[in-house]
Amino acid sequence: MNECQKIIVGLGDRSYPILFGNGILGRLAEELSKTGFPKQIAIITNETVEDLYAADVLAAVENYADKIALIVIPDGEKYKTLSTLETVFSNLIEQGFDRTCGLIALGGGVVGDLAGFAAASYLRGVPFVQIPTTLLAQVDSSVGGKTAVNHALGKNLIGAFYQPRLVLIDVSMLRTLPARELKAGLAEVVKYGVIRNRGFFSWLENNVTNLLGLDEESLIHAVMTSCQIKANIVENDEKEASLRAILNYGHTFGHAVEQLSGYGSIKHGEAVSIGMLVAAKLSRHEDLCQAADVERIAGLLNSIGLPTDIPRFAPDEYLEAMARDKKVHHGTLRFVLNRGIGDCLIKDIESPGTIFSALLQSPDTKGRAMAEKSSSPLGKIAAYTEILAKDPHSTVFVSLSEAYRQLGMLDDALDVALKGTANLPGFCPGYSALGRVLTQQGELSKATEAFATALELDPEHAQALKGLAKVRLRQGSPEQARELLLRALSINPDDSTVRKQLASLGGDHSSGVNKTGDAGTDAEDLHQGADDVVDSGTDEEPPESSPIPTETIADLYRKQGLLKEAAAIYRDILRLDPQRETVRNKLIEIKTLLDPDRSVPTIRLQGTSITDKAVALAVSPAVERQPEGSASESKVVSADPVSTLEKWLVSIEKGRIHVQ
């Protein structure tokens, strides 16, 4: 049985353990027995999680329980309602569950909150257990006993404080989590670093790649640290009389974003990400932090691929939505504000209308508005460039790259897209922008890798699907193009542009590829409408045939002078495949460029011109290399003469090798 780690939420006779590990679901019956959990068990889950884990949980408790039922609710925030709760109660009553029963919440935050409130309410309270399957639920909603459902006028307005008997967190479940959901969960992880642990925040800055790559050790560390911070707070203020309110950092404005956008259209973690940056800017306004702190918070959120741009609703709409928030006391709007990074406080905001009107018209917002109003492409470029000068981590680089591309300034468009994706490696629209530029340059293989990166980050990124369809059509593969367009249409059935493209390919767009396979359209037509940026999520896996972007993206970074970013990718490649000599040589070359003071190898051979010497090097089966000023020598065997000639010539011309 796999090992697990444990922390205790200390609440006297209502204390409970949180278990952490990889593949620890099989311990469930043993842990239920330790807590004296009832043997009449109703498992509450949703339609998505049912297919993934319901059978495993049923098998885990089969020999423990005397009676088991599975109650499945629809998937999504919009079903976190009193109506769904009533359906759960009806199921429990109809199946004869009495006060000796217990509930197991198997799912994300919606399932956990709703099942917890059902446990708190059913027959005046029955025990329950949390088995969170999303990162957001693992680090936040499953711990601390907050249970609730939403109301049309606000989020989580109807609920209770009700602690679970046990929380079992198996990080292996995150492997089935869509990329967008994983990022949304990381927003709450970032929150803990901002409000309570500066060192953890720094660790997150250095481990974004590991976390997005689902590294087991990194995930367990991030989840345990987050839960320990929350447990410490809950132990001191279970029902949010004072201290616990700091856990709402980013939530006051975030809940307003969710409400105004319509529950479910934006993920909770995405809304919290936006709310955290608003809180950070408000903290800066109140002289509680430095501009550099705001930039670090924005940089970490954007590097994960989380949104920070404020949706365009009027300031009065935001104020009205926040006025209904649970954090409002006697009509005064209270905000959790960060004090630097690693500390925070709760502050009453006086004259919120004036302050938020200013915040919602930040330089980024003003710059975007100026760009949209400008009828001149060069005016748009100037506005976007000004935004990036102030905030290199702004997602506006996508719009700037697109503006350059539409003017035919492809080198500038490529430079902006490469720098943007290097700064924000988790932001999939950036890779779509990069793919569009490369497509227009005719670099179809590189464009394919860029679009594949976007789809790896978000398999339902419609613009990447449409961009890749254009590439496939240019490569003479109309059937593959058609399949990609059908996927794009399934994401957005109202996309008339895709419908026209499918119609131009011939045949019924709902029934697969036409018999002839004839493209029936100019390849340029397929790119119509692919310039809008859409960011959405799904649990669908990216196509198996999509290449994993590695050396080509690194080569592009190297070409644009982004040497450290290129070196990081080359190192990752060598860790996976140490035999990649071409990659090793590129990494050595970058190290030489980054450290110009290192000794330059000297090669002694006959020849008059640089070209003669390069040819001699290329054809030599082995040449003597002697570092300048050193008596030691080492052998290096050259590869194929023709393929290495150009490399030797470049190395000599750039002074990386002295030839005598």
Topology-level CATH name of the largest domain: Serine Threonine Protein Phosphatase 5, Tetratricopeptide repeat
Note poorly predicted spans: 507-549, 598-611, 617-645, 656-660
CATH top level of the largest domain is Mainly Alpha
Percent of residues in beta strands? 5-15%
How many E strands?
15
Total count of helical runs of at least 4 residues? 28
CATH superfamily of the largest domain: Tetratricopeptide repeat domain
Mean pLDDT across every amino acid position: 80
Q: Which of globular, elongated, flat, extended, rod-shaped describes the shape? A: globular
Structural class: alpha/beta
Radius of gyration, taken over Cα atoms and rounded to an integer in Å: 28 Å
Sheet of most strands: 7 strands, mixed
Q: Whole-Å distance between the termini?
A: 65 Å
Helicity level, as a percent range?
Answer: 40-55%
Number of domains: 4
Spatial order of the strands forming the largest sheet: 1-2-9-6-5-3-4
The CATH architecture assignment of the largest domain turns out to be Alpha Horseshoe
